[in-house]
Amino acid sequence: MKSLIRLLKYTKQDWPYFVIATVSILAITALNLWIPLIIKQILSLISGGQGPETLAAIGRSGMLLLAAYLGRTFCQFMQRYYSHVGGWSLVARMRQKIYDHIQKLSLSFFQDKPTGQLMSRIISDTANMETLTAHALPDMLSNVLLLIGVTILVFSLNTTLALYTLIP
């Protein structure tokens, strides 16, 4: 946890990118929870009866569903794009910091360490930071929010069914 907090200190310059990505994750989660409710409404309209008002309501709900899918696609693009931009910006800064640090080391440090091995470790370890900031943390946040949202949604729809789903 201490390492994660330390990493967050290095992301100060990239906060606008990560804020946009986080807001997009929140919007994606909200839309992922809203889409099944729209589908439920369409199914209840279909089973409710036939008539011009029903067809118009189904059409409106269908357009709302299309807008929700398009909004989710746009938010997914924004989240992925800005988390990658922020992640690679962080990687570039970290590589520069490591390179500056290596330049200050004494020559005796390099006697028993091959240069290629040092460069390989610098490149691969900093690339792993991009994976953490652009994939692992956003996916974890999204999954936790979705789990909480689905739990609240199921409890609001049917408490007995929600309790049965918690048994496993």
List the secondary-structure elements in sequence, H or E: HHHHH
N-to-C terminal Cα separation, in Å? 30 Å
Mean pLDDT: 90
Class by alpha and beta content: mainly alpha
Major sheet characteristics: none
Estimated share of beta-strand residues: under 5%
Percent range of helical residues:
over 70%
Q: What is the radius of gyration?
A: 24 Å
Q: Which residues sit in consecutive blocks of at least 5 with pLDDT less than 50?
A: none
Q: Please count the helical segments.
A: 5
Q: Any idea what the shape is? A: elongated
Q: What is the tally of beta strands? A: 0
Describe this structure in words.
This protein is an all-alpha fold and 168 residues long. The protein has 5 helices and no strands. The chain has helices at 2-10, 15-48, 52-104, 115-157, 159-166. The longest helix is centred in the middle third of the chain and has 53 residues, at 52-104. The protein is elongated, with a radius of gyration of 24 Å. The model has no long low-confidence stretch (mean pLDDT 90).
